Structure formats: C-alpha cells, structure tokens
User: Fold these one by one.
Assistant:
Number 1:
Amino acid sequence: MPVIEYIEAIRLAMKEEMERDPEVFVMGEDVGLKGGVFGTTKGLQQQFGEDRALDTPLAESAIAGVAIGAAMAGMKPIAEMQYSDFMFPATNQIISEAAKIRYRSNNDWSCPIVIRAPIGGGVFGGLYHSQCPESVFFGTPGLKIVAPSTAYDAKGLLKAAIRDPDPVLFFENKKCYRLVADEVPEEDYTVPIGKSKVMREGGDITVIGYSMPLHFAMQAAEELSREEGVEAHVLDLRTLQPLDRAGILEAAAKTGKVLIVHEDNKTGGVGAEVAAIIAEELLYDLDAPIRRLCGPDVPAMPINPPGEKHFLLNKEKLKSAMLELARF
Amino acid sequence: MTQTGTVRQNSRHAALGISDEKAVAMYEIMKLARMYDERGQLLQRAGKINFHISGITQEPSQTAMAFAMDRERDWFLPYYRDYALVLSVGMTVKELMLSIFAKAEDPNSAGRQMPGHFGCRRLRIVTGSSPVTTQVPHAVGFALAAKMRGEDAVSIVSFGEGSSNQGDFHEGLNFAGVQKLPVVFVCQNNQYAISVPFSKQSAGKIADRAIGYGFPGYRVDGNDPLEVYRVVKEARERAAAGEGPTLIEIMTYRVTAHSTSDNDLAYRTKEEVEIHKAKDGIPVYRRYLTELGLWSDEKEDELTRRLRAMIDEATEYAEKAPFQPPEDSFRYVYAEEGEAR
Amino acid sequence: MAKQVVEITMPQLAESLVNATIDRWLKQPGDTVDMYEPICDLITDKVNAELPSTVRGTLVKILKGEGEVVDVGTAICLVETEEAAASAPTAPSAKEERQAAVPAATAGAPGLASPASAPMPAVAFDPNAPMRSRFSPAVQRLAAENGVDLARVAGSGLGGRITRKDVLAAIGSGNRGGAEPVHAPAPAALSYAPTPAFTPAKAAETLIIPEVEVDEGSPAPGGREYSIDVTPIRNTIAKNMRQSVNEIPHAWTMVEVDLTNLVNLRKALKDDFKKNEGINLTFMPFLLKAVVGAIKEYPLMNSVWAVDKIIVKRDINLSIAVGSEESVITPVIRNADQKTITGLAHEIHDLARRTREGKLKLADLQGGTFTVNNTGTFGSVLSYPIINYPQAAILTLETIVKRPVVIGEMIGIRSMVNLCLSFDHRILDGIICGRFHQKVKEILESYGPDTKLY
C-alpha cells in the first residue's frame, strides 16, 4: 500500500470524487490555476476545467452561500476556506443556512455541501493563520464535523463527506499536510462519518482527541510504554459531530482514566462535551478525574517562535499529562 | 366583446406578449394575495394565529415578477412578503393557511417556521430563513448550478432595501457578475426596514449599485405591474442568453406595519400612509383591465365571492388540521437512514 | 571579533512546509557571501525561491547537494563569518532558552511539573497515605460488586490512592481481603531479618512491593503460575541476606523470659504514658534498655569481624527492624545507652513513623552496632534471625504468651517470651552469648513497680 502525505490524500479524494461524479466541484480562493495556497487542489483545474475548480472572489460568505445554493440545486460542491480563521464571515451561511435547510423545510430540501478549512498552528501563522474554530460550529445540530489526523482517514472521510447528504465541515490540519504520511489504499474506500478509531490499545490510561495532537499522544504513548510501562489507549474521534458516543464510552471505560486533548482552546471545546458524555454515563467506571489538555484560553497563538511553542501542545506536554494521570 | 380585438392589439400587456387570460390571471392572483393577507391580519387580531407579516401593496409587482419568469424551469427565492409571488408560482391559499396556522401539512416547513418563510421543492421555491439576504448567494448558487449543467434555468431572488446593505447582497452580486450567471436580483424597496426609512438605509439608489458589479440595474414603479413584468422579462432573457445578472429595484410602499408585532405610527404618520394607500396598484390595474373590457364589476363580485369562499374553506381546513406530532419535531436534522438526498 | 563558522539552515519557506529540495547552488566553497545574497535555489511544493544568506562571510562547505530533499531546520552549508555568534540565525533567543527551561504551563492538565523521567511507583501498602481513603467511583463499584475489603488493598496511585487496577488485581488474585492485606502477604514467620543501611532514595522505595503480573503469554501447565518483578529494595535485601549467610557462621540460642511483672507494669503505666507522651508504651523500649545494659557488660556483642582483628564499638547504636509489607529496613537508635525508657519509646515511634512515610535520612540507616527485631508482632514464638551484616549479633523478641510455669514447687500462669539470638561464631562463643542472654533476661525480669521510665 503506498504511503502518501496527508495533503495528497485530500487532493486525491477530491480528484477521484470529481472523476466519479460530474456534480462534484471545488470552489474557493486560489483553488483554480494556483491549486490552492497549500497545493491542496493542485492540478484539478487542469484536469476538470475552470468551472469545476472554480476561483471565486475573495468573499467567504459568498463562497459558502453560493455553494449552499448549488448544493440545494443538486450539485455536490466542496467549498474551500483558505484558512479556517477566515471562515467566520461565512458563519451565518453555515449555521443559519446549511445546518438548518433540511430541518426547516421538513426534509423537503437538503444541502449536501462540504466546507474544507485548514486548522491549527505551528506554522508561524500568528493569530489569524493558526486557529482551531471547531468549537464555534460544534454543537450546531444539522452540521457534521470531521477532523482527520491521518492520511488514510483524510481521504476516506473526505470521500464520505462528499457523498454525504448533509453539510459537512472538513477541518484539515495544515501542520499535518506534509508532516503526516501513512498508508492509503489505491482502491476506492470511505471512512464512515460518526465513527471513532482506536489508534492504540492500552490498559492504563485513555487518551481521546482528534487531529494533530494525537500524533504527540502516540509518540508519548510509545515512550511511556518503553520507559514507564504505562500503556495508553488512544482514541481518535475523527468525527466531532455527531460524536461517537459508544466509541468514547468504550474507550473511557477501558481504563477509567481519561485525558482529552485538542489544540482548540479548553473552555467550551469539543473536549468539554466528551468529558460531559463520560461523566453522564460512566461515573462508576471512572478511576480519576477526567482531564483535558488543550490550547490555552487566549485569543490565538502569537507568531514569535517561543510564544508559539509555548502555546502549542507537544509530545512532552502530552507525556507529562499522561504520566501524571497514569500515576493518579 | 367585439371591440376587444382592436383594443388588445394596442394594449400594453399584449405588447409585452401577455395574453388576455394571463393578464386577468395576474389580477386574480393579486386579489387573492390581498384577501389572504387581510385574512391573515384578522386571524392574528382574533387570536387564532400568533403572527402575520404582510405584503399588502406589493402584490402587483410580486405577481408580475413571477409571471415574467418561466414557472416550469426557473428557481424562486422569495422573501417574507412574497405571498403574491408564491401564489403565482403555484402555492395554494390552503397551503399558505396551513403555514400561517403552523400545521403539519404546510409544505413550506410542516409548521416549523414562521409564516412567510417559504419553501417548496415541488414549485422550485427555495427554502428561506429569517436572517435577511442569505438567500442572495443561494440564488447565485442555483444560477451557477444551472450554468454548469447547461440548463436553461434562471434564478430570481427577492429582498428588501434594508437587506441590500448586507454583505451577502454585495458578495452575491459580485460573484454573479464575475461569473455572468443567470440570476435576477429584485430589491422590493418598500421604503421601510421595520422603522428605519430608506433615507437612513442608503444615500443612493439601490439599482445604481449594479454598475459597480458590472451589470445593469433598473428602478421600476412597483404599482405598475406591466412595467415590472417588462423589466423582469428582459432581465430573464439576458440571463438565459448568458449575458449575466440584472438588478431590479422595485419602488413600492409598505402600507401595513412591519408585522402584527409592530406599531408603525410610532415612526410615521397616518397621512403618509394614506397617501400611498391611494396609489395602490390593484385598483389601477383593475381599471386598466376594465377599460379594455377584460374586467367588470360583475366579474369583480364573482371573483370576490369565489376567493372569499376559497379562503374561508382554507381557513377552516387549516384551523382544523393537525399539528406535526411533537415527537416528529426531532426528525430531519440529518437525512434519515437510507435516504440518499 | 574572532572568525566563526556558522551553519545556514533550511528555513520554513511557507506555512505547512516541512522540507525543501535544493535545486542549484549559486555559491561554491571559497566564494564570498554577502548578507541576503542568494546562495542556492530551492524547490518546494508551495514556492520556488532563492535562499538568501543570513550572514556575511565566506562559504566554507556545502553540506547538502543539489537535488537533496532537506528538512526544515537542517544545516545546508557552513559560512565563515567575522560576526558574533549572536547574529547567527541558529542562535535561539535568550527568551526562548529561558522559556525552554520552564515547564510549559498549558491550560489543561494541572501540575505538569512532575518530571517525565521519574519511575512509576509500584503498589504500596500504607494505611496512612493521604489519598488512601479517597475512593474513585470505579473503585467503590468494583469493591462493592466483588466483596473486596478496600482497607486491605494496597494503593499504587498518587498518595497511596487505591486505583481501579489495584482492585482488579485484588479480584484477579482471588484475595478479596480476608485476614491478610491483599497484595501485602504476611511476612514469613521465620527467616525474617533486617538489612543494613540504604541510601535515602532507596529508603523511599521501601514502601514498594512488586506489581503482580499474571503472565498470559504462555499457556503453561494450567497457567497456575505468575511472576513477580524484583524491586530494587527486594534485590538489596536479597544481596545483604546472602552476604550475611555466606560470610558469617551463624550460631543460634534462645532463652525463655518471664515478663509477668513487666506486663503488669506496662498495664499500669500505659494509659498515663499515652496521655503524657502521646505515644503507646510498648515492650520494645524495655527490651532495648535491657539489651543496652547487657551490652555494657559484654561489649564484644557490639563488634565487627575485620578478618585480622575484631573491632569493638564504643557507641551502642541499636538497629531496630521495621517491616513493611514486602521489605524490612533497620533504622538506628544512636547512643541507645544514653536514653531512658521513655526516650527509647519516642525514638522507636519516630523511626517507625518516618519509615512508613519514607522520610528516613541516610544517617538514620547508618552506624548500627547491634540489631533488635520484634518478631512477636507477627505472632512468631521462635525465629532464626539472620545477622544484620556486618554486626556481630541479632536478638529477637517473640510473642508474649501466657503459659503454666513451674515456679519453685508451684505451677503459676506467667507471661512468657522467648528471646532468640543469632551470633557470629567467629567473634562470639556460646559462653559469652549465654551470659549476655542471661543478662538481658535478668534485667527484663527485674522490671517492677519501681522501674523508672524517665
């Protein structure tokens, strides 16, 4: 099975879906001739033409709103937000419109749109090229939200999102783009939305998270296994909405010691809901307070290297938190 | 009837390609919308329904807009006062009544949304919301889809002059202009955004904004349905011919309060309202038809009786119809198992 | 300023890029390089760019050739400069260095300061640990469902907390808390002997008992075995025991002592003693006092074999054996001969408490000259102690039992105890030990209403 980069997995998912279904198209700023500022849509305009790899005006609400209209008309648009930091102008379209179209029309209309947006820092992007806005959209019924951590899941989830009959926010981690590469089958496959994945089995502590920080968790888990004999059970949520309750509960019950990790800030983050689910259903399986290791509650990360480093999670921070929980 | 042939040749509607039957049908829709609207207000005042929002005086232009479009192919994205438009496109007064009573059979939302939030896939009426102007980019999206598929469909979208200040108005128009998409933007300028007069919403004409986006904009008298018809028809033809969008600013006046929850005399005078009531387009259009021999007092009486009976029946039906079972109000957040769409 | 060779590293040319390919070198070794002068062409997925020099100087060496893919941050060439190192691009800012030294306080896990390298503590049994009685919901449920007596389960968690795994292990081992603490097997009645001094770090580990692991790997005959890891403390004990047994020719003797008077004395004094001193009055200080008295008479008991000579210690420093679940250590009461019975009682209490809390200092474990072990606490009436190497002898106090005893021509019910003595036969012989033994017995039996505790 070929090993490909996370970014290539995303590009391939779009390419293959556009080949499979003529109603699939991608639109956004710089997605056409340039192939995206990160290169995510490279080659798509050359292969599919200007309409299906559509360069749009610099106006996020229109990118979302026009895509929503096209989706209601039966197309399968993929709207790209250049950085998730810039998708807030489109928030009204996403929350007031896309999320509610099926419900408000009593199933008469639907909105099969995919909105892709790169999240996360560690690329010297400063405040406005580094944010994780999941929590802004999380908790909006009608939206599905996915945030893969591996190339395999990125491709499988993006394909599933494109084929999904409802609006899906696809949060891809820009730090993962070229840092993460793994085995991705050449044949067509999808990863089901709403299903978490056990990345590592262990009996001492459970780490639940999504996106980039899981790689730190995995590195820390290997070291803790080697150095301390601590075996971490690591669960990748993959889908943030709807959360895989069964998967979360199973993973949490396995050890009774849960560390939730994400780069989005702690207060009101996805982790808070994961913690609440566990607290609601697993009181008698808990052996330690549920812990969260998240981005700090500051507006966003600074661009200066020490500041960015201080803000971000890393293997050491994960390891320390995991060990502390293991010892509790 | 012997004279009609001669008159018809010289009539304005014939010149626009509107048949006599169609001209009369337009009048009947205007009347139906007006009577439905008045009934809605009565029902609210009588405590039978919670809320009504009116489109009175805007019926002639709304009717003309719809009739100027291809009601088999085109996409309609109305705003909350567009009763005459949706009735023209095929929604029945019974369906509107079901909506105003918020009953399960309401095709717009099964009684989930406020009245005036139209949507009916069968009639190509696109579902809408309350945050204003979000429908403008949607209309552009429908036009984009039509263009990509090579379909001969045009989308038409309504909004108020207040909404014309939203970012979605500008973003939508600009997008459509760049891509030369088949869409007709219609601003129904009724002079008030709730309490704020047009003079405090815009320092210029809404129609003039089109030039900034690279396509034509026209201002038209909303009390003259035939003129509205002409302008919209031309806009549709331009769109269908691949020449891109058009912005149309229909000048009208909201003679009712913003909604049943609003007291308009807090911000304007009765005199001002009366002046505009006198300019109501429906009696003018009736006179036009009557002068051409297409209409008469007898026909008016007969129509009024017929519409009244229809509205009575719809009211009674809707009032008795069941609400959506509360447990069903949790359905359709997402597609249900096995649904592809 | 002195010349200096500076590395030029691959910069992060754009967000998300982790590497770049060197397309062509524009400078060769020996070429002078000006500040910001392009030195090579780079190709990446996002941008193609000339790489400007970040220093002024002479290119000395090219480290990465054309066509090589180089990770961000990797050195690609060396430039000799005359500038201070501070201007070199690779030098981290002082602030960065400072921050790197401070453990990052990330919102989330509280108290991240615990060093990641500290070893994972194994299961300990300490009834007074601060978190011992803070039971998590999972622990309470498991204990209730499986009839586990939590008071008898050792806690491996922070502050001695009983973890879910501890309870599961207790259930798995079938030991749900009968007469003996789960995970804390009772020490063997025989062969229970102290070990000599440990370092303080090791002293902390005395609270450790090995984790029980059920070996599921090999379905060996019935799978009826499991292995226990040898902890460092266990290893030390083993080594010392082996050394003592190997080197010292042990001899053993026992006397029987009538403690009836002492028992009565203690009974009469203990309540006041508790009130006045805040600690329990046990038999140990009386025994120590007796041992000290006997040693004074027979100082050879307080000596060390040094092959060509016997070293007799003037200080009488009594090692007392303090056992925990799976180990035993021997803290020392210094100059025990200078202390009253009350003073000895306080010393014993203090050492036992600090042993449990792991707060012994190195000095507490060093310099013992003779060992006393209260084996009676676990019900033994006869034991064969191993000498606390390199001392000369060890004495045990066995369980006090009431027995019919012939006194003169009568039979009385007396509180009797056995004192067992192992001694180094290289130094000591039967006669001297017999006398020593008798002296201890004499003193113990002489305790009575007139005995002074202070």
Number 2:
Amino acid sequence: MLLTAGWSWLIVLYSLPVTGFLGTGATFEADANLVVQLVMAAALVAGAFLAKQKRYRAHGICQTTVLLLNLWMIGLVMWPTFRRQVNPTFPKALHRSYYAAPIAHAALGMAAEFLGLYIVLVAGTNVLPVWLRFRNWKLWMRAEFVLWLVVVISGIGTYYAWYIGPFR
Amino acid sequence: MMRRKLFFRSLAAALPFALAAVLIMHPTRARSEDAKSAPTEVRVDNFTFGPDTLTVPVNSTVTWTNKDDVPHVIASNDGVFKSKALDTDDKYSYTFSKAGTYSYYCSIHPKMVGKIVVQ
C-alpha cells in the first residue's frame, strides 16, 4: 500500500510542470510546498483553538497530522532541494543570504520537527519511560507552536531569497 | 625558344604558390575557421544565460560557466542533457551532434531559459 502510494507519487511528481504557479522564479514543487506550509500553519492555529475549547482528541489529531505531513514534505521537497542547492557550497558561503536563510530554516525546522515528534510521543503514546516525559504540557506545546511559526517565517524568507529577490 | 622555356619555368614555380593562395582564400576554409573561432560559451550570470540564444554548427561543444554565487543546473526541455548542480565557476559542456533547436532552462530557477540553435 505504502509502496504503491510512493510510486504513484513519484509518477505524479515527474508529470508535474517545471515552472511554478505563483508567478515568481520558483519551481512547481517549491510553490506547492509554500502553499502546503501556509495551509499547515493555518491548521496548527486552528488546532490550538481546538485545545482552548478543550477538544483535546481533535487537537491531537490535527497537530499530529500536520507534523507527519511536514515530515513527508521534508523528505519529498525540502531535503532534496537543500542537498542540491546548499550542500555544494556549505559551509563556505554562510555569509550570503541565499545560503544563510535556508540553513537557519533547516536548523530551526529540524528542531521543531523533533520537538513535535517528542511531544506526540509523550502526549499520545506510552513509548517513552516516565523520566523522559514532561508534565508542563502548556509550556512545551506553546514553545513548539511559537517555534513552528518562526520556522514558517524563515521558510518564507528562504523562498524570497531563492525565488523572488534574484528576479526583481 | 629561351623565352618560352623561361615562361614555363616561371609558371611551374608560381603554380604551387597560386594553389596555396587559392586554398587559403577558399570560402569553405574561411568558414571552417570561422566555425572554430565562433563562441560556444554560455555565461550564467545574474540569473540569466548570456547569450540567451546561441547558434553553433553541428558537432560543436557548448560550455556553460556559472559566474553566479549560487548554484544552477542546466537542463534541456526534452531531457537531452542535464548538468549536476554547478557551483561558482563550475563548467558544464555538451556536444551537439544533431541539427535542431535545443531549449534549456535552469531546473532550480525555471525562469532562466536559453536556446542553442544547431545548424
């Protein structure tokens, strides 16, 4: 099932147009990723409101879905793009915004993704031993929420540095 | 009699020089030298290809040089050629053995487009 989905996705990916649809200098996958990230950020905000309304099950499903979908987007779009565009010059060109923006975004993004996975494991499973579980739920989740929004902003910065700034 | 001999000897001596002159000044030779010296370089600079359209004879090798401080990937629209990610001052060459028009772009920045016309 997963294998079929993977192959189908690959076929879809290869049949996609090269040029993006937002009218910038970006590729289709970069534009699609930006839109998906903004939708996911909106979903996280909605998920936070669900928690405020004490609808914890819906909140958990919403935030976990975003976390896993983001993992999918990292593997499919962001990591391959990072390897292709940043790796060849890393770390000698860190002073240029073209490289500094994605490196900051990648570092913060990894922290947010790992922290999110940790929170999901603590909140939704019994996998971790007791001494590894936090008790102050609100603090951890709010920290993750703020970190995630910072990552989204740095992602927009990366998009600007790569696909808008050079073509102005 | 002596005059005629002298004439033929002069003619025989001049013939190789005349032939050499004809060969040097022959238009096909001039053309091939032109082809050799014709630029087959594309400069990738400031997120553009320069020149954006390059006309070359068949069997020419075109070389792209990345002068930007960001990576670019040269890829033809129909998948005939594709470079690796080119860092600053990296080069990529491709030999065009068939006539035709080859449109290409940077697969990282698809707004960057160019064309190689092979005649």
